[in-house]
Design brief:
Blueprint lengths: L21 E7 L7 H11 L4 E7 L5 H10 L2 E6 L13 E2 L1 H6 L4 E5 L2 E5 L2 H12 L5 E5 L3 H13 L3 E6 L2 H11 L2 E4 L10 E4 L25 E4 L8 H8 L3 E3 L1 H17 L5 H13 L1
Parallel strand pairs: 1-2, 1-3, 4-6, 7-8, 7-10, 8-9, 10-11, 11-12
Antiparallel strand pairs: 3-5, 5-6
């Protein structure tokens, strides 16, 4: 196997640190909205690393040959986003307990000759709620992909007692609800019950073709709700804007994105990016 130049082998995980010159990137389909190159390239620059981070749009039918190239070309690490967070798992040699429990991988890294999968989305998801000292009594997760899995796992870790998932495809919501032992709500009935927290993990509102859409009716927001959107580009989605106008507290996906990205960077390099500096850099890029 040809590994990235400067990589360590041996037993136990070894951080790359400042010795690493390598190629990193994000895979997903599509990737027009991603800010991962902006975040990680800034981090490499801050630590003086000769590394590069690239957006690699990989269609679902291209995933297998791409992952083969990861093993034969100098790719030091990957971020993984929709729709590959689950489908990438069979191409890895080892998956962390947390990623296995969630059933999704968002980070790929090398441990010697072993290609490993981790999930830093839970860390990213719960960090803004910890900052608010907010544990909702009830929460509804919109969507049934890899990010929804992380949201459900994070909310269960927080001890939310009434927890449910909904999705436009009912069968996917039912399967996810069964996997996490939570309630399943039909998409058409998602706004019929009061929820203290509603979290959007769907692409609705994302920059591009879905930007004008929202998964929630503006008239159904109530001022005691918290609206959480994992979408971070645009910074304020229609979902969040209408929630804010209704008097709700809101959490932007940028907070989750920064925290999960910092955890990825630390896993790849052994270095800790400055969270405030990273968020400020991203805000400047999004507003500019």
């Amino acid at each position: 196997m040809v590994r990235p130049e400067g990589w360590f082998s041996g037993t136990g995980w070894r951080a790359v640190g400042m010795t690493m010159n390598g190629s990193y990137g994000i895979i997903g389909w599509p990737l027009g909205h991603t800010m991962s190159p902006t975040l990680h390239s800034w981090g490499f620059e801050q630590f003086g690393m000769d590394a590069r981070y690239t957006a690699w749009p990989v269609a679902p039918d291209e995933l297998a040959p791409f992952m083969e190239r990861v093993r034969t070309q100098p790719v030091a690490g990957l971020s993984v986003t929709i729709p590959h967070k689950q489908t990438v798992m069979p191409f890895l040699d080892r998956i962390s307990d947390r990623a296995a429990r969630i059933g999704a991988v968002n980070t790929v890294y090398w441990d010697g000759d072993v290609l490993c999968g981790e999930n830093t989305d839970i860390t990213g998801f719960v960090a803004p709620l910890h900052a608010l000292s907010f544990v909702p009594a009830s929460a509804l997760v919109l969507g049934a992909g890899g990010a929804a899995r992380a949201a459900l796992a994070g909310l269960k870790e927080l001890g939310v007692t009434r927890l449910a998932v909904t999705n436009r495809t009912l069968a996917k919501a039912e399967a996810l609800a069964a996997a996490f032992a939570v309630d399943c709500v039909a998409w058409e009935s998602r706004m019929d019950s009061g929820w203290q927290l509603v979290c959007n993990t769907t692409p609705l509102g994302m920059s591009g073709a879905e930007e004008a859409r929202s998964p929630w009716d503006a008239q159904v927001f109530s001022s005691d709700m918290l609206a959480y959107d994992i979408v971070y580009n645009p910074l304020e989605t229609r979902f969040l804007r209408e929630a804010r106008e209704a008097g709700c507290r809101t959490v932007s996906g940028l907070d989750m994105f920064v925290q999960q990205g910092l955890a990825q960077f630390a896993l790849w390099t052994g270095q800790s990016m400055d969270a405030a500096g990273a968020k400020g850099h991203l805000l400047g890029a999004l507003k500019g």
